[in-house]
Write a structure and sequence with these properties.
By secondary structure, the chain is mostly helical. Helices cover 74% and strands 0% of the residues. The chain has helices spanning 5-29, 32-42, 56-84.
């Protein structure tokens, strides 16, 4: 079965970008630090991480870069998948 590399790229772009949209909203609402504190507690980590105040430019950059990397990863994975498939 051949994978459409463009569609896979778009799916991964939306997934990675979407996670970072949600993270940006959490930071904007002031929920970022409590969320990280809970995650570190639940994983039994002790690491001083401080969530900085929301920065719109940083947020847009984060979402754009992770979406682009997701698209690239999807295209690469789809291409590799298509190359290793045995064709009858």
């Amino acid at each position: 079965m051949e994978i459409n590399t463009n569609k896979l790229g778009l799916v991964l772009a939306v997934m990675l970008g979407g996670v970072h949209v949600v993270w940006s909203i959490f930071v904007l609402l002031g929920w970022g630090q409590p969320l990280l504190d809970f995650i570190f507690w639940a994983h039994m980590f002790s690491m001083p991480v401080i969530v900085m105040p929301f920065d719109g430019l940083a947020s847009i950059s984060l979402i754009a870069i992770t979406s682009a990397l997701g698209y690239l990863a999807g295209c690469v994975l789809g291409t590799v998948w298509n190359k290793v498939q045995v064709k009858d």
